[in-house]
Each structure stands twice: as C-alpha cells, then as structure tokens.
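Illustration 12: diphosphomevalonate decarboxylase.
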Amino acid sequence: MIKYWGKENKELIIPMNNSLSLTLDAFYTETMVTFSKDYLADSFYLDGQQQDEKATKKVSRFLDLVRQKANCSLFASVESHNFVPTAAGLASSASGLAALAGACNEALTLDLSPSALSRLARRGSGSACRSIFGGFVEWEKGSDDASSQAVPILSDHWEEELAMIFILIDDQQKEVSSRDGMERTVETSAFYDGWLSSVNDDLKEAKAAIADKNFQALGAVAEANALKMHGTTLAANPPFTYWSPDSLKAMNLVRHIRQTGVPCYFTMDAGPNVKVLCQKSEVPAIMATLETQFSKDRLTCAYSGPGLTILETEVNK
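Figure caption equivalent — predicted structure in token form:
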C-alpha cells in the first residue's frame, strides 16, 4: 500500500522509510527445511526443481544467519513450492523468505517470537518481515537490526471487507530485479528525494484511513504512492520502467471503472502487474469490466490473508 523503495543499510536490509502492506491469501509459499548431519552441502529445490548455484547461495546465506543464531553447523535441504510467479513483481521474495524463516524456526526449534521472526525474515528480503503477520502491517524502519521490524495494524477486521484483484500482465522474470532497481534509483534518480520527502505523509494518510475505515482515502493514497514510486525509476541513470503497454491499459481501465461510480484503485509493485484494490461487494462488477479487456485466466481475486502458518506434515506429526 505504501511502498518500500530504497535501503539505508544494504547489509542489514534497513529501509529508507516505513512502509505498509496488506497480506493476501491467494499467493503464498510452502517451505520445508530439514537440517541433517548426513548432508554435505545445502540444497534448494523450488517447485521440485533443484536450483542453480546462484539461487542456492542466496538461500545458504540466510541459512548461515539461522545457523549462527542456533549455534548449529548442520547443512540443510530446503524444499519450496511457490504459489506466486517468481520475480514477476508479485512479492514472491516476501512470501518465500517469510516461509523460509518460519520453516527454519520450526526445524531448529528456535521458538522465536513473531517480532523476532519478522527481523529474521527481513535479513532475507525486506518485504518478508511484513509477511509474517496477517492483515494490515507496517514495517517500522528502525535504526538497527534489533529495531527494524514489522508490526500489525489493528483495524477491527476491516480488511476482511476488502479485496485485491490481480491483473497478471506478465508472469515472467523481470529484466531489472527489485533489488537492482531500488539500488539504481536511490543512487541516481533525480526524483528520489521527492519520493522520500513525501512518503511519510502518505503513510500517515493511509494509517488514518485504516483507523477511520475510509476506503476511498486509503485507495487514493495507495494509488498516488505507487505512481510516485514508479516515477522515480524514469529519472534513474540509466532510466528504466516496470510498466508495459498493458500495464497502462489496466491503469486506465481502473480509472474508467472509478469514473462510472464504482470505487476502486490500482497499485503496482516492482513489476508490470496491476493490482486493483476494491471492496468485496464490488468484485463482481469490477471483474465483469476487466474481463472485457483481459482474459479470465489473467485475473485473480485475493482477500486478506493470515500471514505465517505452520502446516502439519508427516515428518512433524
């Protein structure tokens, strides 16, 4: 809803600003981690396929943090199933690293609190710290490893009245990763200072809208904040954008629906896919209009999700 775009500390993944998200149910990751003295190295399987050295090394770096915390030297097998298109701007890293943190916590019986899990997940992917919790969540940037963490925003379950329709423009891996795009923008964009000077006011507006259960106020600030974030990429050196022609078509269609009297607002993360924030009661009307321009298989409706959940498996039964 209010974007995280820029790191103050790259090693600890401490952001330049606080951010705010809504955890959803439709896109998620299931992960199982097994530590064993029989393993000679870490292994990483995603959707049944063993991953290459680069992907495995990223997972191993996170496992090293866990091993240090647990005073453990065992290698691990990580098996993940992504119900999110990977690296397509649909928060697969947030989902994946939150699941990995939770699975490591279970595998090594670390008994970490939700706040401690949030801080651990942040070290793998900044946005993952918010995915530990359900509903509306704020990532408090903090100033160090102990204070940069996510906290739930109480809304008296108002989020259960909302929906998010995903217009899947492109589920392929994007050319500029979120991490690289963020770094390039912070270091070179002439527009970045303007983004940073206004984002705290956006956050205050969003939190006030949640407290007041004011859907239109929340939608308006979320849409404006997304456009500002994407605007910073156009002034980077070299410039880039995550938008495609169909992204623009989707945004214009959402504006058209809103002009007909149906309240809805768009937002986008670091990718071409457009998300439409609306109220549950308006989903059928909005979907009917979207289907005039986009095929049904490119549309997914999501609702508020529960955050990290521990699943029973044959192993831990």
